[in-house]
Each structure stands twice: as C-alpha cells, then as structure tokens.
Amino acid sequence: MARLVNADTQEARELLKPVVLLGRSNHCDVCIPKAIVSREHARISRKLLGHYVEDLGSSNGTRVNGIPIHGKVKLREGDAITVATVRTSGGGSAVLRASRKDTTVVRPRKGGDAKGEEQTVGATFIYRK
After folding, report:
1. What is the pLDDT of residue 87?
2. Nearest Cα to Cα of residue 122 among 44, 51, 59
3. Is 72 buried (19+), middle (13-18) or exposed (0-12) by CB count in 10 A?
4. Beta strands in 28-110 (DSSP E)
5. pLDDT digits (tens, 9 = 90+) for 3-30
6. The pTM is what?
7. Could you state, in order of their start, the residue ranges of all structural domains in the chain?
8. 3-128 CATH
C-alpha cells in the first residue's frame, strides 16, 4: 500500500482513499496546521498507473523533489513532496503569514541558495509504495 512519510517525524500515513487532500483545514485527510499552508493546499489522486499530486492554487506552492509543480505530477518511489515554501533573504525581514512557532526554518545547503537565505517549509513528505 502506498503511503506518505513525514520527513520530520517519520510518521507514515497510508493512501487508502482514491483522493487524499492535504492542507491546513481540519477536514483535510492530511492536516498540516501551519499558517503558510493553504486550507486546501494539494491533492494526491490514485489513478490506474499510480498516484499523482497537484497543487490546488495555493499561495506558497507545492514542490516535488524541490521543483515547483503545475498540473498533475506522477509520483515515484522516494519522491519528496514539499507543501508550502517561502524564501526570505537573511539580510532583510520578510512579511510572512506565519509565526516562527508553527513553522520550520531550514538553512540552505552548501552550494545551494544565496548566502543568508532561509527557507520556511510547511511540511515535507516522502512517497513510498
């Protein structure tokens, strides 16, 4: 059975339903209670040939393996699905619609983004078959 594994907590959720909704709202199948996540942020759909993820017009986007997605993207074993990403410059202050206590701030890796840049992520999940 396919599942999503939370990259931070290692909690696994089986994808039992044909459509799984990810978002901040309590009615979502995968609830991510962070302000930078849209109420209904992304959807994972089970089709004949596998699972597909799509962003639902969220403000802060959805990425697969670090690449912003547009339309449906077929998921492969080990794909990283990132829900909501906000980049800020280390030198200035950006206005975010989230407080530090309900977000995760990740420093960029060496050779990655511009020096001093921070990345705020709603949640990252690994797709497993």
Report:
1. 78
2. 59
3. middle
4. 30-31, 42-47, 50-55, 62-64, 67-68, 73-74, 80-88, 104-106
5. 999 999 999 999 999 999 999 999 999 9
6. 0.77
7. 3-128
8. 2.60.200.20
